[in-house]
Amino acid sequence: MEYQALFSPRGVAVVGSASPGKLANVLIHRLIEGGCENIYAVNPKGAGVGPVPGVSSFAPLKNLVDLAVIAAPAATVKNVLTDCGKAGVKAAVIITSGFSEIGNAAAEEEVLAVARQYGIRFIGPNCAGLVSTQSKLVATLETSPPQGNIALISQSGAVGGVFMALAKEQGLGISKFVSFGNGPDLSVIELLQYLKEDKETNVIALYLETVTQGREFMRVVRDVTLKKPVIVVKSGRTDTGQRAALSHTGSMAGSDKVFDAALKQAGAIRVESLEEMLDLCNGFSYLPPLSGKKVMILTNSGGPGVMSADKADQAGLVVADPSPDLKAALQAFLPVHAGVRNPIDLTVEGTGEEYQKSLEQALKEYDAALVLYIGTPYLRAMPVAEGVAIAAAGSRKPVVSVLQVGSDLSESLHFLRNHRLPVFPSGERAVRVLAYMAEYEAYKTRQLTVPAVAGDERCLAGKPSLLEPEAMALLQKNGIPIPEYYFAKTREEALDGCHTLGYPVVMKVVSPDILHKSDCGGVVLNIDSDDKAAQAFQTIQTATAGCDFCGVIIYPMLKGGREVILGLTRDLQFGPVLAFGLGGIYTEVLQDIALRVAPVSREEAREMIASIRTYPILQGVRGQAKADLDALADAIAAFSQLPFHYEDIREADLNPVFVFPEGLAVADARIVGAKA
Question: Are 323 and 351 spatial neighbours (Cβ–Cβ below 8 Å)?
């Protein structure tokens, strides 16, 4: 009910000074210009604005108004909402600033309490309002957009205004615009849930600066993207204020990278600019779904066609040559000088009819097509536009176009847009849209499951961290492969351990005081005799003097595997986060790390493995055997569940993990608790 009151109200009351130039006055004029009816001005003087009657209180408006648009001083907003509640108002847009954004959180809490008392749902405070084009509701200071099927939720009113202004220039229509401001009541999560079922909305665009309730946000986005595409611009990519704390991978797991990973897992598309967002909205708004990645490029100019093909290939699209049958079909009507590979090059002499026939034939074999027309000032582009429209209508496959130069260029562009065919400034931008559309459809097909993990055990019992033997035992208990090991507190026990495991072995110090064992001489490799084992124990004990020496842990020497690193930490927004990458220089220098919000399924772990740039090394290069990727995926999935089984785990670091052609083994483990 609150959403109908918000987006399709019976009446609207604008609260604030009605004097010319004041916000309330401007808002009333925007509502009038948009075609809204049943508008009332509410202010202490009872002053009206033009045809809009004025009242001094809400009492005369009881049961006449569903929505209040408030532009009154911050100190009065609480009382205004009280009056709204008594008059039966069910929704409010609080334009007024001066609340939590300037540190006045207490006043915002008071406003929220009054709203909850009377069952009023609101956006703001400190927002730019909302637009519902179907209802002719323009309750904002920003640009009034044309009607369409794109909904925009923006944390910044100014960014929303720029988006709508640019959309208007490009002929893109808006269904809903919401600037939610500080968002103590209606937040992006609830608005997304509403828009998922909104019949007027086919595409959802988000501009965000911060996210609260990260996991709930992720769950809702995942739910929405199975039905509608969600395109996100989030500012703060370079903010390093919230660093994850993993000893090796933490410096590469900043909050923005975690946010990026969360969006990918949820199926949303993150872009870097409003330009990209508009391009994608253009594609998703007008085009049918893209069911594959095979794209034909049709051009009359070689250079732009090649550049577009390069970009398509980089974006993961398939720019394959036509089949022999398609080549024969093209050669049957094209002149001999035309190129019939991919791109199909009609040359500057290409006619509208040749564009149409070539496109009709190509779309029988390809999943989508890009049409490039680079004209001259004396030639007409309209015949090409008309041919493209006819071919696209017959195929029901995505067709994107680039039209540049022509005596009737403006009319041609307008013609294509009227036929719901998006036109882009360049081929590179056009194929980028196709690539995102293909990726989105592939995501919906995969529908990766989120593992259900139950458990509230504690494994550290108040300790700051687990000793390595304890960490290894915990990993083994949870199905993560480890090598045989032996924990020895004395030299004699160490020798017994070496005999039990068999030489050669590695010996490492066990101490709660030592994090990086190699740095202090706490690791001895390739021990192959009793004499060397005794010397190694003495060397480690001496090197770690002054520390709490608990003994040594002994493993067989592991050889022949590929080294990888696994890490877990807790992000402030999304909770437990998983990191994976190759060990050594690949992590430290190349920063080749894949992040996911934990837990992950085995299937998602496989995608995580394949996403790193150095994945070919795991597949085997120069005659090397392929690493056991199934065993690695199983280990990643099991490891990702640890912080849910054991609530006191704050961080975990497995480095290195040796992955062999068959199986794997964790060679070192560090598990840290919340009190560390």
Answer: no
Q: 293 near 316, Cβ under 8 Å?
A: yes
Q: What is the pLDDT of residues 608-631, one digit of tens each?
A: 999 999 899 999 877 788 999 999
> Homologous superfamily of 2-201 in CATH?
NAD(P)-binding Rossmann-like Domain (3.40.50.720)
Is CATH 3.30.310.50 correct for 484-556? no
* Beta bridge partner(s), residue 176: 132, 151
Token look-up 């040559």 returns 321
Q: Is the dihedral angle over the CA atoms 97, 103, 107, 112 positive or is it negative?
A: positive
Tokens of 503: 């030489």
Higher pLDDT among residues 253 and 507, named by residue: 507
pLDDT (tens digit per residue) in 270-282: 999 999 999 999 9
**Nearest residue to 224 (alpha-carbon basis) of 166, 161, 269, 281:** 269
Q: Is the pTM of this model over 0.70?
A: yes
Q: How far apart are CA 243 and CA 238, in angstroms?
A: 12
User: What Å distances lie between residue 396 and 366, 369, 393, CA to CA?
Assistant: 12, 11, 6
Q: Cα–Cα distances in Å, from 446 out to 196, 475, 603? A: 20, 30, 10
Residues in the chain: 676
Q: Which amino acid is at 69?
A: V
Fold of 562-673: D-amino Acid Aminotransferase; Chain A, domain 1 (3.30.470)
